[in-house]
Design goal:
The protein has about 290 residues and is mainly β. It has seven helices and 17 strands.
Amino acid sequence: MAMALPAELIAATVQIEQTLPDGERTIGTGFLISDPTPDGKPRTVLVTANHVFSRMPGRAAHIGYRLQGQDGAWTYDPQALVIRQGDTPLWRHHATRDVAAIVVKAPAAFAKAAIPLAWLASDDTFSRYGVGPGDEMMVLGYPQGLSANAAGFPILRSGRVASPVDSPRVSPTFLLDFRVFPGNSGGPVFLADPQRPDTASGQTAPAQFVAGILTQQVELNNQRLEIGIVTEAPFIRQTLALLDQPGAAAPAAAPDAESASAGSAKPASAETAQSSASATETDRAIVGVAVSE
């Protein structure tokens, strides 16, 4: 990887949106993972927070792909993604954690941008690299539906780990000193440290991995504490494994051209970004209250 993880993840991260019946948009973040089928066939999977999909009532969402022209310029090219057949969801989600995955037919260039499954932290990654309170991690997303530029690239922000970090067998989440906005849900949270002790080798080496996925924010007495909740990466791995179980859906055909373009929009600027009550709820957690999706 040679310290390329931030750039690689930027390339793999996309905006997910759907226009609601009232005309406003609900927006989330997702990222693409290359997860071949058990028989070795290539497969591209979109990973996001489960509530991003579950709170989109329509049949199709839109993925904000980006295409690069021969002149090197990037353009925003949203495409429809069918997420339901009737009332049946086409995505798979973890039984207890807010993580979802769906197989997608991404444009060829975008399929190449999908990150390898091996870049996700495993059960022992945090202990191997001594990850704990005070460590800086980076987060990609679309706060309030805002993108970095007109081509729809995600915005890179950072925060420090604000809680103990344990094995997922002990604690499935950790806290990040990071202000969460509607649109951030589902974004990858990752560590990219050029020099870090590796207990497995006994040497100091670069440490780069996706630590988890941003799923919620902490709120107390209706006051946001500017703390994000990160669901650890092993639960992403577990969710991806569900795609290989009987009944997992193949990527559905996109709607026709007319319906595919309906509701999609250019990436919002600070002046035009819309948020809705539904989008605000996607990033909300109440301290002391279990959140279920």
